[in-house]
Amino acid sequence: TRRITVRDIALAKERGEKWPMLTAYDAMTASVFDEAGIPVMLVGDSAGNCHLGYESTVPVTLDEMTMLSAAVVRGTSRALIVGDLPFGSYQEGPVQALRSATRLVKEAGVGAVKLEGGERSHRQIELLVESGIPVMAHIGLTPQSVNAMGYRVQGRGEEAAQQLLRDAKAVQDAGAFAVVLELVPAELAAEVTRTLHIPTVGIGAGAETDAQVLVWTDMLGLTGGRVPKFVKQYADLRAVMGDAAKAFAEDVVGGTFPLEEHSVH
Ligand code: KIV
Ligand code: NA
Fold it and tell me: From the alpha carbon of 23, which atom of ligand 1 is closest?
């Protein structure tokens, strides 16, 4: 079997097929999703919050993204792996973006990279695509800008909606193969999806986008505390793992693990 490519993704839009994307940050989790048939996995800088214990995505480094992306590539054989460019690794300009993306492609083996920003990132996208690196763009709420924009719904109101449409067209014109729409009104996400010929990947963007992405720890109920309204929890891994850890602890304290069957002589 060969890996899914960005050409397959383009074909899916032509055929009107919707597709799922999940984040992954380690080889084992990624292998589960690969075997489950998830066609595209994002090594998101959400790893900052969901894997590395940071407060936001802002502190995540390119070294960290390279290491996590390499693990996810090693754990999979079929999915297209998209590596997120972290904050500070592409904002200086196209040459810095190319240098950073090249590390994810050469050292980690990703098939594509993702970066945040519409019009403001179009030169970066252009150079990467010219250089042979497929780019997934990301507009609407862009968490790397949390210090400037907070975590608020984007594209509300006529002016903001027009800007989002301009951003969407800018990344398409720059050559992006897909664009994430994060936390934008469903009606606006639907309009962007109808307007573009590249697929839109929604998160908190309603039902009309071509694809849907969720952060895996949110989707499987591993994230502690409050999860956003747009998340559907398909499992309660936090409870499963917590109960298992408690049972193990009780067994050890009570002397009921290990048993004869777990012992060697
Ligand atoms: O880092 C991430 O997980 C993301 C997705 C939410 C799109 O950027
Ligand atoms: Na991200």
Answer: 3
